[in-house]
Amino acid sequence: MMNALGLGLFCLLLWPEAAEAQFPRVCCTVEGILSKQCCPALGSDPANVCGSLSGRGNCSAVRVDSKPWGGPYRLRNVDDRERWPTKFFNQTCRCTGNFAGHDCGLCKFGWTGPNCDQRKAPVVRKNIHSLTPEELQEFLNALELAKTTTHPDYVIATQHWLGLLGPNGTEPQVTNISIYDFFVWQHYYSVRDTLLGPGRPFKAIDFSHKGPAFITWHRYHLLSLERELQRMTGNENFAIPYWNFATGQSECDVCTDSMLGGRNPDNPSLISNQSRFSRWGVVCNSLDEYNRLVTLCNGTSEGSIQRGIMERGNTSLPTMTDVRSCLGIRDFDSPPYFTNSSFSFRNALEGYDKPDGELDESVNNLHNLVHSMLNGTSSLSHAAANDPIFVVLHAFTDAIFDEWMRRFVPSNATFPDEMAPIGHNRDYNMVPFFPPITNEEIYITSEQLGYSYAVDLEDAGGPTVFVMGSTLGGVFIGLLVLLLIFVLYLRQRRNRGFEPLIKADFTNRKYTDEA
Q1: pLDDT value at position 126?
Q2: DSSP annotation of 62
Q3: What is the DSSP string of 394-436?
Q4: How far is residue 333's CA from residue 294's CA, in Å, rounded to a whole number?
Q5: Digit-coded pLDDT (tens) for 244-298
Q6: Is residue 411 classed exposed, middle or buried when 0-12, 13-18 and 19+ CB atoms within 10 A define those classes?
Q7: Residues facing 422 on adjacent strands
Q8: Cis peptide before 336, with omega less than 30 degrees from 0?
Q9: How far is CA 184 from CA 23, 180, 278, 299, 353, in A?
Q10: Residue 166 CB neighbour total at 10 angstroms
Q11: CA atoms of 161 and 275, how far apart (whole Å)
Q12: Quick one: CA torsion of 360, 365, 367, 369, rounded to 10 degrees?
């Protein structure tokens, strides 16, 4: 019975999804929770389970990653998110071909048509500063509508898993939540602490940061929101924009009332009253209180979005030089696949390494640095997604990753399949997305997922060859580098006798060495 209750509760907890995300409302019934089966019928015919009558899918056992994980979380059978999502559902719809969704009623990202057999023209994510006035208003209006529109498919739990079915075991404790707040809730749930008892959190756990899944998790998170906005607006070509934060400035150039909210002159920690976002309430902000009460975020408003004052002179946003340095790191990740991984593209992009891959005790570079400078709500990982800047910030982070993929064309084997922190192995089902989807399935180029980036290299302030550079440009630079190495080699051998090139500064550290 306790397992059934846990299942149900999580069902509510997890985020909704039109593009796969959390537990569907249709499965959060007493019967669904007790059976641990989430295989709804597609359409009005109850026999059409998972669209089976038209060959779209079938009800199958959930596949989970069986490889060992590393990182600081060494507990077992303590956290509901282990072997996700089998604590709650062990049978879900497994869709065939390019079908997708909790009932196989959707197409996979990048596909369209009645039979999901037509490649969808990629939507184009543009720089927010290059949007036309009409495009900018469409984006801002979509965010505002998503903040007030109840999610059509998903609900969240209002009690912890032991109380999911209520005091009598007959009444699921669930509530509706808006599309945007569901987006926030997903991020919160992925980083929340493991509860060992009232006021006894285990904090060294994170399913969406501090490991390889940082990149794939946030990519899927944005994709899910983008699809929900497309469905909500009826515009399948709607695309979220990105914010090129690599300006090197000490000011946030999207923090204006015409964009994502300027500073309130009467209270600099709040957003200006002239901005629509000053009226946004934050959710999932009281992590310590949830831990004390042994409960979960229930989606109620907990105050306003806050932004701290950026320190002028002392700190500035990343630069395009930082981005180029990060893009020069060939290896996606390196052992121990955590915050102390060196010469890891993922760790450098996340911000725990310096942009060139060297370890940095400040852990405050690129992505991390931007969150830190925005301060306030954005600096708290469990609450950061409340600030709409989160969307455009992570879109640019994703654009950097996509360029890295195009440059190095990594195989799936470059994503670690074991000993990454819990949730970060290649075949782990990303928490709390539902139906289950692995990191590996998202470790592909954006075009394969139905979107692309329009990057204005001139405005980005860096040479085209390094940022979204052409193949010919890359070959040219490569030949120059080889020529330079050869000349240095001959000079070194002539002047001091032969010394192996492995002693060159750029190769004297092994990226696999632990910090």
Answers
A1: 98
A2: P
A3: HHHHHHHHHHHHHHH---GGGS--SSSBTT-STTPBPTT-SS-
A4: 35
A5: 999 999 999 999 999 999 999 999 999 999 999 999 999 999 999 999 988 889 9
A6: exposed
A7: none
A8: yes
A9: 15, 6, 17, 9, 27
A10: 14
A11: 38
A12: 120
Residue with tokens 């002392």: 314
CA dist 288 and 283 (Å) reads 14
Range list of β-strands (E), 151-306: 156-157, 174-175, 194-195, 201-202, 263-264, 267-271
For 117, phi then psi, to 5°, come to -115, 15
Task: Tokens for 319, please give them.
Answer: 């630069």
> How many angstroms separate the CA atoms of 198 and 218, rounded?
30
Beta strand spans in 230-368 (E): 263-264, 267-271
Residue 216, token pair as written in the block: 């794939």
What's the sign of the alpha-carbon dihedral 321, 326, 327, 330? positive
Distances (CA, A) of 256 to 244, 260, 262: 15, 6, 4
DSSP-derived pairing of the beta strands 194-195 and 201-202: antiparallel
Tokens 């979380």 label which residue?
73
Strands (E), 210-300: 263-264, 267-271
Check: CB of residue 247 under 8 Å from CB of residue 253: yes
- Taking the model in full, what pTM does it have? 0.85
Q: DSSP secondary-structure letter at 338?
A: S
329 closest CA partner among 352, 300, 306: 352
